[in-house]
Structure formats: structure tokens, C-alpha cells
From TrEMBL, chain A:
It comes from Sulfitobacter sabulilitoris. It is found in: Cell inner membrane; Cell membrane. One of its GO terms (biological process) is phosphate ion transport. Belongs to the binding-protein-dependent transport system permease family. CysTW subfamily. The lineage of its organism: Bacteria, Pseudomonadati, Pseudomonadota, Alphaproteobacteria, Rhodobacterales. The gene is pstC. This is Phosphate transport system permease protein. SUPFAM superfamilies: MetI-like (SSF161098). It comes from the Bacteria. CDD domains: TM_PBP2. Coiled coil: none annotated. InterPro entries: MetI-like, MetI-like_sf, Phosphate_PstC, PstC_N. Keywords: Cell inner membrane, Cell membrane, Membrane, Phosphate transport, Transmembrane, Transmembrane helix, Transport.
From TrEMBL, chain B:
This is Phosphate ABC transporter ATP-binding protein. One of its GO terms (molecular function) is phosphate transmembrane transporter activity. The lineage of its organism: Bacteria, Pseudomonadati, Pseudomonadota, Alphaproteobacteria, Rhodobacterales. PANTHER family: ABC TRANSPORTER I FAMILY MEMBER 17 (PTHR43423). Residues 18-260 form the ABC transporter domain. It is a peripheral membrane protein. NCBIfam families: 3a0107s01c2. InterPro entries: AAA+_ATPase (IPR003593), ABC_transporter-like_ATP-bd (IPR003439), ABC_transporter-like_CS (IPR017871), P-loop_NTPase (IPR027417), PstB-like (IPR005670). It comes from Sulfitobacter sabulilitoris.
């Protein structure tokens, strides 16, 4: 067990220790800076520029922010740097067996980490781990005992690379600890020196808060950019393997994992748009009428009950809607339109429970609260003075709604419908369970069809090879979907913004 | 206000258009109008004055039953227009409001063209026999509201694009287009600048020839300028009602005097 102690106190590695140290330093800095500022004002807080705690916050900020920032960047960059250094140790022979350099490197990484785990668990001493030789010991068995599974027996070259990886990692980790701690101490020194009565600590803390907010905002945007870029790269890969003419202009979706697939988006796009259209035909009138009733006619007591109830509908997970489609709506539709003599209408139009209509109806139900909640807010935003003006001219309530309130609210309602459409197009679980898996272009809503989202799911589940067009097509589909919904959202926002401020 | 000729102003007609008897209005538990009885004459401008919250707007809104749209509002007593009780079960408030037009404090043109704004009432009530008839109605209403010359070349432009004073005159045109018999105005000039106010006041004086006009105003000068009869409300009571000149020069009630000389309100 003494071996385990050597890798860190309380089971923490160097990273954990350094984070702990920075936090302790920041806390100490808080107390010291506050005390120094108070002392410089002769113990009278009124003579300080800022409240005493601001000097403490400023010190804690100066200590923790640069140190932890460097720590994060270091942790992200270090594996890549170490890997590059280790790369030279791996001979071409080890790679040539039909795999790639990345796979070999992941073996190296796993072996190195496995040795560290074995040391930490006490199965090997630190010296034994460093001197272990591939031929003498059964490394695979040793590591297997501590829960690290290796794919194959270990080559001497791989082992050498892994040992190099370990020692480099250890070295750079300690350098990192030194750098981070000295940054923290430097921050502490600067903060303590400036903790005097005249120092504008409050303004400094304010700037720090501003940067925190900017960081959060830019992280959100950068993540979006990152998602788009990653899809873009894979899409470019896909189009280098598969002709774009087939993807955009072909009419058949027939993926074949032995190659020679026909991967055309059109049948999927047709299914997606057809289902979304049916969903909107269901959701827009019902949602809009519900919103009109709730905002114009319902009394405050009914409203206070009905509105949260509708919004609960919006909180149901879509997989539950999918189950509803599969188990309730689908069979009900089959009873209505199928089963021949046994069915209600004696028709044989529908054979399976999954169909465009099933998915469309259930998705429409899902969208009702979405449409009604947005429309309700928009209708409420129409000024009461317009209603009064219309009533004052002797218009009835429904005339007022039809001719004054709805035209005034129309831009917002159009925006709400477009937002609902983009949700319908991107919806996955309901169509996975309700729509079926057959890609075709047909006008019959009782047939099973499939959508872009369900095909993305099916192309990426199971054993996938990320170098084949059959898998990469998922990214092209995803990017198309993204562009489609982004376009709808931008259009919706544009419409809402352009016409919104007209009546204020 | 000091214009002594006010008392000599002729009142054109003597017949009673609106007669209110013992009107009480409650907003929930709040007794907003207390036992108000008043006779409002035809072809006359009657001004309601009084401090904020005295009930003058509430009483105005009783005359076309606009208070029906407020759930917690309850009206007791009788209001007769041409001898007919407007709170009778037989009376449809929607029809009543076509007969008793209303202009609001803030200009509230609909988000439609100028033409459609004016044609709104006639279309709802089916007052026109065809397109050209409707054109005539719209033109007549806009002329009566003294705004025709300013908008005749842009009838299809949105009504919300007009200036404040033009918007308010458009709203008056919209109200007169349904051929009402009574025109209620709830502080029609409070959102307007002095020039627009002068135009609207001039218009109110012209409207008197055809309608019985009831105007709520905060400005005593305005009441003195445009009205023939004035009613002073205070804390839900109708304190004093009479000839405008009389009220402003020789009020009988000390509260009226205090208000018009600026000591209360």
C-alpha cells in the first residue's frame, strides 16, 4: 500500500493536488488581502474605496483564475504533446498490420494508464512497473487482475513507447504543478501588494464578473461552431467517398454495408416533411384555438389551471409520445383503416401500426402546447386598447379577435408556427417508433415511411466503421437537417422581429 | 376660464338624450360611482371634469356598456337613451355600442390601412350596399373628422403611420362612420400636443351639430372651451351639473369652486 501513497496524498494525483493548493491559496489570499486593506485604512472600513470583502474577492480572483486557466489549457494540450514525442518510438512494422497509427497510439495510452493503475492498486511497485519487460512477465494477466483489459499481448516496442509515455507524462505533470503554483503565488503577491485603501477593488471585481459572463456566452457560441465544424468535416469526408449527385438528386435510399449503396436524401426528406406537415395540420389549429380561448375567453381561475396543464404536456419526454404512437394511436388507426372485415370501416388500406399518419398525429399532439403557449403570449401582447377600440365600435368578441387581434398577432403566430415546424423536422423518438423504416416517396399517409432523423439513428447504431460512406452519410444528413432547421428558425426570428414593435 | 361670454353661450337643443337615474358602479368591493343621476342633452357637448379616480371615466363607460368587458364590474340603476333602458335584458350591448360611439384616451388605430380602419364599423354592421357606397361612407366620415384632405391620397397606407393628432382624428372618423347618435370621448386630447389638441377641439365643436358629445377631460380650460354643460365629479359623487359658464364663474358647491380654482384635485 505504500506504493499507492507515492502517487499522491489522499489518492489525488498531481492535478488534484494542485487544484486543492490553488483553492487553499485563494482562500488564504482572500483573508490576507481583506486584512491588509483593513489595516491600511486603520481598521475603519469607511475609509476604504470598496467594501472590505471586495479586496478579498479580488485577491482570490487574481490567484485562482490565471492558475486554473493555465491548468485547464495544459491538461488539454499535454496528451497531444506527449503523444507526438512518443510517436517516433513506434516502428512502421507495428503499424503495418492493417491498423492505423491512432489505434497503435491508443494501445500505448491504455498500457501506460494500465501500469499506473497497477501501481496505484499495489499490484506492482513503482520500480517494478518501470523495469517490467514484455518477454519476462505476463503484463496482460497482471493488468487484467487490476481491471485493465488489453486487446492483445504486448509488443516490446509498444511497451517501450508506453514507458516513455509514462515518464514524459510524469515529467510534464510536475512541470505543470510548478508553473501553476508559481502563477498562483505571483497572483497572490500582486493582489496583496495592491490591497490598499485607495485601490478600486470593487471595479476590478466588476471587470472579473464581466469577463466571466463573456466567457459563458462565447462558450455557448463556440460549442455551436464546433458542432457545425465537426459535422462539416465528416460531411466532406462523406462526399469524397460518395457522389453528391446521388445524395441530393437520387431517389433511392438503400444502404448496403458491403458497399455500392444508394444513399439519397430525397425519400428521407419527403418522409420528414410529410410527417411534419401532418403534425402542423394537427397542432396549428388546435394550438391556436386553445390559445385564443385561454387568452381571450377563459376566466383567470380557469386560465391559472389550464395553462400549467398544457405546459405539462410540453414536458412529457418524446419517447413517451413514441410509445403512445406505437401502442395506442397506431393500432387504433389500423382498426379504423385496416383489417378488412374485422376493422371498423371494413377497409384494407393500412397493414402495420407504423405510418406517416401515426407519427404525424402524435407529433401534432406533442406540438399543441408549444404552439398554444407561444401564441398565447403573443395574443396577450396585443394592446388592450385595440380590443377596446373594436368593442367600442360595436364589434362582437369573435369579430374583434378575427379582424383586430389576430391580424395584429399574425407575425408572432407565423413565427411560432415556423418554430414548431423546425421542432417537427428535428423530432426523433416519435418517428423512430411511429413512422416505420421504409424509405420511399409516396403520397399515401397510411404507409410507413422514414425520416432523416431515424436514418441517422440507424446508420450510427450497432457496429459501425467510420470510414465507410454508409456511416458517414449520417453526418451529411445531420448537417442537412441542421441547415434546414436553422433556416426555419432564422426566418421565424426575422418575421417576429420585423413586425413585433409596431404596436407598442 | 375667465371668459365671461361663456355664460351667454347658447344651448342649441333642449331635448334629453341620455338620462341616468341613481347609477351605482362597483368594482368588486369598491364603490366607484355613488348614486349619480344626470340628464345629458342632444346636440350638446357635455364635459365631465374632476380629479383622477373620481369616477368620470367609469361613468362614461357605463353609457355604452364598455364596463361589461370588465369581469368584476357591476352596474346598478337605470341609464336611458331616448327613453330606452340600455341595461334592459332586451338590449344587445354590441348593437348599443354601434349607436354610442367611443373615442379613447390614447389613439388606437387598428393595424390596418386608413380606409379599412374607417370601414371597419360599417362592414361589421353591414351599413353599405356596395363598394362605392362604402367609399362614400369612408369619405364622409373622414371629412367629418376633418382629416380627409390630409389622407385622401394615401388611404391604403397603415393608420398606425399617422401622427398622434391625425391618429386621434382617424379614430374619431372611425367612430362617426357607424352613424352613432352619441359620441363618448375619454380624455381624447391627453396624448396630443397643443396643435393637435386645438384641431380635435375644433372638430368636437363641429360634431355637436349632429351628435350628443360627452367628453371626459382633465383640462378645465378644455372643458370651458368646448362644452356647453359641465358635470363635476368628486370621489364617485356627481357634485354639480349645469351650464359650463355657470359652473366656471359661479359654482354653487364649495368643492367645485375649490377644484376649478386649483385648491383640490
Amino acid at each position: 500500500m505504500n506504493a499507492a501513497q507515492s502517487s499522491g496524498v489522499f489518492g489525488l494525483g498531481p492535478t488534484g493536488l494542485v487544484v486543492l493548493a490553488v483553492i487553499v491559496l485563494a482562500a488564504a489570499g482572500f483573508v490576507l488581502a481583506r486584512a491588509r486593506a483593513m489595516a491600511s485604512a486603520g481598521g475603519d472600513a469607511r475609509r476604504l474605496h470598496s467594501l472590505p470583502n471586495y479586496y478579498g474577492y479580488n485577491a482570490a480572483m487574481m490567484i485562482a483564475v490565471p492558475a486554473l486557466g493555465v491548468l485547464v489549457i495544459w491538461l488539454l494540450a499535454q496528451p497531444a504533446l506527449v503523444q507526438n514525442a512518443v510517436l517516433d518510438l513506434i516502428p512502421q512494422r507495428a503499424i503495418a498490420e492493417g491498423s492505423s497509427i491512432n489505434l497503435v497510439m491508443s494501445d500505448v495510452r491504455r498500457l501506460a494508464e494500465g501500469l499506473d493503475v497497477a501501481v496505484a492498486a499495489g499490484a506492482l511497485s513503482a520500480d517494478e512497473a518501470a523495469d517490467i519487460v514484455a518477454t519476462g512477465t505476463d503484463i496482460r494477466a497482471v493488468l487484467g487482475n487490476v481491471g485493465v483489459a488489453l486487446g492483445s499481448d504486448v509488443d516490446p516496442e509498444i511497451l517501450a513507447a508506453a514507458q516513455e509515455y509514462r515518464s514524459l507524462s510524469r515529467l510534464w505533470s510536475w512541470v505543470m504543478v510548478a508553473v501553476v503554483l508559481s502563477l498562483a503565488l505571483a497572483g497572490m503577491a500582486i493582489a496583496l501588494r495592491s490591497a490598499r485603501a485607495g485601490f478600486r477593488a470593487r471595479n476590478a471585481v466588476e471587470r472579473g464578473v464581466l469577463w466571466l459572463l463573456i466567457l459563458a456566452a462565447s462558450l455557448a457560441i463556440l460549442t455551436t461552431v464546433g458542432i457545425v465544424l465537426s459535422m462539416l468535416f465528416e460531411t466532406v469526408n462523406f462526399f469524397s467517398l460518395h457522389p453528391w449527385q446521388d445524395f441530393f438528386l437520387g431517389t433511392t435510399w438503400a444502404p448496403n454495408f458491403r458497399g455500392n449503396s444508394e444513399l439519397s436524401i430525397l425519400p428521407l426528406l419527403w418522409g420528414t416533411l410529410y410527417i411534419a406537415f401532418i403534425a402542423l395540420v394537427v397542432a396549428v389549429p388546435i394550438g391556436l384555438f386553445a390559445a385564443i380561448y385561454l387568452s381571450e375567453y377563459a376566466g383567470p381561475r380557469l386560465r391559472s389551471v389550464a395553462k400549467p396543464l398544457l405546459e405539462i404536456l410540453a414536458g412529457i419526454p418524446t419517447i413517451v409520445y413514441g410509445l403512445f404512437a406505437l401502442l395506442t394511436v397506431g393500432p387504433a388507426l389500423v382498426t379504423l383503416f385496416g383489417r378488412g372485415e374485422e376493422g371498423l370501416l371494413g377497409l384494407t388500406w393500412m397493414t402495420g401500426a407504423t405510418s406517416v399518419l401515426t407519427a404525424g398525429l402524435v407529433m401534432g399532439i406533442m406540438l399543441i402546447p408549444f404552439v398554444s403557449s407561444l401564441s398565447d403570449d403573443i395574443i396577450n401582447a396585443v394592446p388592450q386598447s385595440l380590443r377596446d377600440g373594436s368593442f367600442g365600435l360595436g364589434a362582437t368578441h369573435s369579430e374583434t379577435i378575427r379582424q383586430v387581434v389576430l391580424p395584429a398577432a399574425l407575425p408572432g403566430i407565423v413565427g411560432a408556427v415556423l418554430l414548431a415546424a423546425s421542432r417537427a423536422i428535428g423530432e426523433t423518438m416519435i418517428v423512430v417508433l411511429g413512422a416505420g423504416a421504409i424509405a420511399k416517396i409516396s403520397a399515401n399517409p397510411l404507409e410507413a415511411m422514414t425520416t432523416i432523423t431515424t436514418r441517422i439513428v440507424s446508420q450510427l447504431t450497432g457496429d459501425t466503421d467510420f470510414a465507410s460512406p454508409e456511416t458517414l452519410v449520417a453526418f451529411a444528413l445531420g448537417l442537412t437537417l441542421f441547415v434546414l432547421t436553422l433556416g426555419l428558425n432564422v426566418l421565424a426570428l426575422y418575421i417576429v422581429r420585423t413586425y413585433r414593435e409596431q404596436y407598442e | 376660464m375667465n371668459d365671461m361670454r361663456l355664460s351667454e353661450r347658447a344651448v342649441d337643443a333642449q331635448n334629453i338624450k341620455i338620462a341616468a337615474r341613481n347609477v351605482q358602479v362597483y368594482y368588486g368591493d369598491n364603490h366607484a360611482i355613488k348614486d349619480v343621476s344626470v340628464d345629458i342633452e342632444d346636440k350638446t357637448v357635455t364635459a365631465f371634469i374632476g380629479p383622477s379616480g373620481c369616477g368620470k371615466s367609469t361613468f362614461l363607460r357605463c353609457i355604452n356598456r364598455m364596463n361589461d368587458t370588465i369581469d368584476i364590474c357591476r352596474v346598478e340603476g337605470d341609464i336611458l337613451i331616448d327613453g330606452e333602458d340600455i341595461y334592459d335584458r332586451e338590449v344587445d350591448p354590441v348593437q348599443l355600442r354601434a349607436k354610442v360611439g367611443m373615442v379613447f384616451q390614447k389613439p388606437n388605430p387598428f393595424p390596418k390601412s386608413i380606409y379599412d380602419n374607417v370601414a371597419y364599423g360599417p362592414r361589421i354592421h353591414g351599413l353599405s350596399r356596395g363598394k362605392s357606397d362604402l367609399d362614400d361612407i369612408v369619405e364622409r366620415a373622414l371629412r367629418r373628422a376633418a382629416i380627409w384632405d390630409e389622407v385622401k391620397d394615401r388611404l391604403s397606407a397603415p393608420g398606425t403611420g399617422l401622427s398622434g393628432g391625425q391618429q386621434q382624428r382617424l379614430c374619431i372618423a372611425r367612430a362617426v362612420a357607424t352613424e352613432p347618435e352619441v359620441l363618448l370621448m375619454d380624455e381624447p386630447c391627453s396624448a396630443l400636443d397643443p396643435i393637435a389638441t386645438a384641431q380635435v377641439e375644433e372638430l368636437i365643436d363641429e360634431l355637436r351639430q349632429n351628435y350628443s358629445v360627452v367628453i371626459v377631460t382633465h383640462s378645465m380650460q378644455q372643458a370651458a372651451r368646448v362644452s356647453q354643460k359641465t358635470a363635476f365629479f368628486h370621489l364617485g359623487h356627481l357634485v354639480e351639473y349645469g351650464e359650463t359658464g355657470h359652473i366656471f364663474t359661479n359654482p354653487e358647491d364649495p368643492r367645485t369652486e375649490s377644484y376649478i380654482t386649483g385648491r383640490i384635485g
